[in-house]
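Collaborator request, handled under Task 6.
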Amino acid sequence: MPTAAPSQTNNHRLIIFAWIIVALISALPDIAFSEITGSVPAWMLAAKLILLGILAVASYFYKPIKLLHNFFLIMIAFFGLLELSSRINFTIPFLQNLFGANVFDQRMQAEQTGKLAVSVFMILILFVLGYKRKDIFLTRGNLKALITPVKLLGFPKPEPWTNFGLLWSFCIAAGLGVALYLGMKPSSSLFVNMLPFLPSIIFYAALNAFNEEMIFRAPMLATLEPVAGSLNALWMAASFFGISHYFGVPSGIPGAIASVFMGWILSKAMLETRGLFWSWWIHLLSDIVIFSFLTMGLIK
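Structure tokens returned to the collaborator:
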């Protein structure tokens, strides 16, 4: 049964094996095919699911990889649910009308409702596997928990997350805003025209932040930390999350690197506070910036 703060197994071969599997099921193969052939093969998702399925069965019988059994199962759910949700029309006019059915609502409502369905099912699956709310970080956490020092970021000593989290949430959002502004260069009038959309932007940013934390981060950390330890689990989740943004916003290698850093801070927040708040808050502010520029693009 998972504990509140699992310890590492110290099985170095198993940790290396876990890293290899994370790399194989990440967006790395997709990126390689995209760069070499110009497209991602249609069978890529099926190949990842087959690999995870074989490993899930093998880990049930083969003791050396048994500790990764729950990780294989939750990643099957991850890919399967995301693929299934993409095939379902989650458009609900009533929900769009709550904010006036503007172009941003029409762009976001179905996508975020689908993500919410996936995050709820991921949580339920983790519960079925025997995890408790604290095990999957579905709590506020200790907001004043001390960070593990990060000298390169100007924090050489343990400091409360109230300092680190507040500073970096605004720094990341500001940096992202500058990058998006330089890329889009919107007029001042476009900023003004975007303001009426703010209630909708904030709502969907808050929902997206929760969804992505409970889809991309919490399940990986909960199932990998008891096997690989906090540090390896942190970097596995950060890498998996960041690399997937090669095809996202911001995109390409710069976008992936920035997203790995973002994933590192979000995973660090979740692990060190043993809760969701700071990772959700940091994610929220960044999504508000991204969604604001997305809205300006829609009304341009």
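The cover message to the collaborator said: "Residues 198-244 form the longest helix (47 residues). Residues 1-5 have pLDDT under 50 and may be disordered. Please let us know whether this matches your experimental observations."
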